[in-house]
Amino acid sequence: MIPDAAAIEVADLRKAYATEDQEILTLDRLSFQIKPGEFVSVLGPSGCGKTTVLKIIAGLVPPTSGVVKVDGAPVVGPQRKIGLVFQVPALMKWRTALENVLLPGEILGLDRVVARDRARELLDLVGLTDFASRYPRELSGGMQQRVGIARALAHDPAILLLDEPFSALDMMTRNQLNIELLRIWSERKKTSLLITHSIPEAVFLSDRVVVLGPRPARILDVVPISLPRPRDARVRVSVAFMEIVDRIGRLIGLEYV
Amino acid sequence: MKLTLTMVALVVLWEVLCDALKIPSFLIPAPSQVALRFYEKRALYFTHTWVTLYETTAGFLLAVVFGIVSAAVIVVIPKMRDIVMPLLLIAQLVPKVAIAPLLLIWFGYGLVPKIVVAFLVAFFPIVVNGASGLAAVQPELLDLGHSLQASRWQIFWKFRIPTALPELFSGMKIAVTLAIIGAIIGEFVGGNRGLGYLIIVANQELDTALAFSAIFLLSVMGIVLYGLIEILERVLIPWHLPSDPMAPMETTT
Question: Smallest CA–CA separation between A226 and chain B, in Å?
């Protein structure tokens, strides 16, 4: 790998869906890059096609045109170097928290003993040490999503793709998980791409925020977040934070009028 | 407990009414007469119950095996669904009672035609419930599987089968009660063994007490088979709490 090469590179990405009588453009010439270890958010209004961006990078959906590269190689299908966190926890309700985290190892045929140790360590990391043997229905929504994060990290992927992982949670849980995710990211240094429609969430977590407009989604701006790291909860009430949130809000708001 | 008391009360009421209204026993026998007949003919019942149980179980198990395989084919090979589903529906719409005499011609008077009828009536609910269960996998889980480059077999075994189990068990519970009916239909149409045959003979001889005790045994058989499936369900899928049909709908978050 060439040093300084982008971990994720999106160039001139377009995605259109064909319906019976017309073609509907959802993503219009998106271009951005994410450096190794960087945390980037893609922020946009609901229904603008943010999730499609993530699915294209994950190799689950093909682009209509444009190039998507991961570690310099064009994406042609799913890759094992990517970990996915979904909008819903998507846990297997017939498995305990620990067994859910073991799933990627089983599919990839990793060594069982190593995988089990690793899964326990990841449950520690997400603060669920005492809940390893609980079934999903015995866990709160926030806890279920923590299991989802641990599962995404189970096969030690270089890249973490998060698709609005906290949007179904209440504000308090959401803020708490933001802080947890920040801690996990700073411990593991995974290249991370977060899809979100929450401006404070994107600003709090990211190095840069890619701001998308409504359909068809175009990049309005890529906003660097110069807030110093490590960040803690106090950052959220700082003037610098508010200013960036306000700036992005205007960016989106102006586009709406 | 309330159920037991209610049933005891009903039996007592039945006995008292038969006695008080002097109902002839060939019309409605009193419970005591049914019990007496049952005791007198216990050896006879044993063999005939065994035959019906065998036909029912064999037909049901065949339906489970072929039903699950068919459901899997329908779900895993989408092209097959458009061919197989209409065929299944047409097959289901043919009245099984109507073809039972034909089965007699094809398979003779032995156990086979009874097992075939039991199989035919039990098959449909298993396929339908099995297929809808196998198809009900969360789309995110499929995305997860694909992103890890899981094989078709891994996705089927790790995601589809466990997702399908609760619905499959609902289908099996319906199927087992139908299988008993199938076996009885087969025995009614022709044969010389089984509780269905015994009921026909008892009717011809106006031995209503005998028919009643045969019906009683059939009910017990149905309850036991249903109960066995429920026990199996609890052992195999403890994570799935059987929902109380009378309880208000639970909203999942």
Answer: 33
- The number of beta carbons lying within 10 Å of the beta carbon of residue A34 is 22
B144, burial (CB in 10 Å: exposed 0-12, middle 13-18, buried 19+):
buried
Q: What pLDDT is attached to residue B43?
A: 85
A174-186: pLDDT as tens digits: 988 999 899 999 8
Token pair, residue A247, equals 């700036």
CATH class of B31-235: mainly alpha
Range of the domain at A34: 8-81+158-256
What CATH number is given to the structural domain containing A221?
3.40.50.300
Q: Do B240 and A94 touch (CB under 8 A)?
A: yes
How far is Cα B164 from Cα B81, in angstroms, rounded to an integer?
Answer: 17
Q: What is the pLDDT of residues B70-82, one digit of tens each?
A: 999 998 888 888 8
- Chain A positions contacting chain B at CB under 8 Å are 55, 58-60, 77-80, 82, 84, 86-88, 90, 92-95, 103-104, 106-108, 135, 137, 141, 155, 168
Give B239's contacts in chain A (Cβ within 8 Å): 93-95, 135, 137
